[in-house]
Amino acid sequence: MERPIGIFDSGIGGLTVAHAISRILPNERFIYFGDTAHMPYGDKSKDAIQRYATAITKFLIANNCKAIVIACNTASAISYQFLRDKYKGIIPIINVIDPIIEATVADGTHKKIGLIATKTTVKSGVYQEKMTRRNPNIEMAVLAAPLLAPMIEEGFSEDKISHTVIENYLSNPIFKDIDALILGCTHYVLIKKEINEFFKGKVKLYDSTDIVALKMAEIFKREGILSPKKMGEHHFYVSDITDGFQESTTRFYGGNIRLELLKL
Ligand code: DGL
């Protein structure tokens, strides 16, 4: 099917997911929308996030998208069910939480899984609820890590500041004995190596990049909506633009892209 995929996030963090999609589904073209005017979503109310997510989804549908990917963990936690109910039968909507839960359960070895995410994601209880539904025997240890996303966005990684902040969160006693950790935020994949070093490689890490793109490949195949040939250029829209956002794209996407301003 030669229609684009709509991907949205609170800002530029979701480019980590977009990049994985471009690698794993190279024939697909996407329209990315980063809601930089309203980010961070991580401390916004449910009402505000659902309002923003609806406006973005309407825009992506109006632009002929064949599926919507909620690349943001916070928006997935707060608006997935809401959007699904609203657009059922109209367009497939994919979130970043279900594929991770599925992958951790499919592993079959985990007894206690940690989660770090934004305050809003943690408060929603969505990860815990979905995990309990899939496997009630897996214990979850959940911690909001609100300093991590802005720290990564400001370019701190592999240095004294990032080591201190990461250690401060991950040495929390609730994480004693975890055998896996879910990196429940678009940004955290950029500090995956440091997190792995903190746990000395003994804790399996799950993030929402390749796992989500592979899940999409499976869904698209099943639904018969895979693009049969290489499509045109991707588009990257943001609701507010600054030099800082443009510069950060290289880190989050791993290549040069041009942001376009679009106010919804
Ligand atoms: N994209 C958000 C997430 O994955 C992190 C940034 C924000 O709080 O907006 O939860």
Search tags:
single chain; 264 residues; alpha/beta; Rossmann fold; 2 domains; six-stranded parallel β-sheet; four-stranded parallel β-sheet; 11 helices; 10 strands; globular; binds D-glutamic acid
Description:
With 264 residues, this protein is α/β, with parallel strands linked by helices. The protein has two domains: 5-95 and 209-261, 3-Layer(aba) Sandwich (Rossmann fold), CATH 3.40.50.1860; 98-206, 3-Layer(aba) Sandwich (Rossmann fold). The chain contains eleven helices and ten strands. It has helices at residues 15-24, 46-62, 73-87, 97-107, 119-124, 126-134, 148-153, 160-170, 192-198, 210-223, 243-253, and strands spanning 5-9, 30-34, 67-70, 93-95, 112-117, 139-144, 180-184, 204-207, 235-238, 259-261. Strands 4-3-1-2-9-10 form a six-stranded parallel β-sheet, with helices on both faces. A four-stranded parallel β-sheet has the order 6-5-7-8, sandwiched between helices. Strand 9 (235-238), helix 11 (243-253) and strand 10 (259-261) form a beta-alpha-beta unit. The protein is globular. The chain starts with a strand and ends with a strand. The mean pLDDT is 96. Residues 9-11, 13, 39-42, 72-74, 118, 121, 149, 185-187 line the site of D-glutamic acid. D-glutamic acid is lined by residues 9-11, 13, 39-42, 72-74, 118, 121, 149, 185-187.
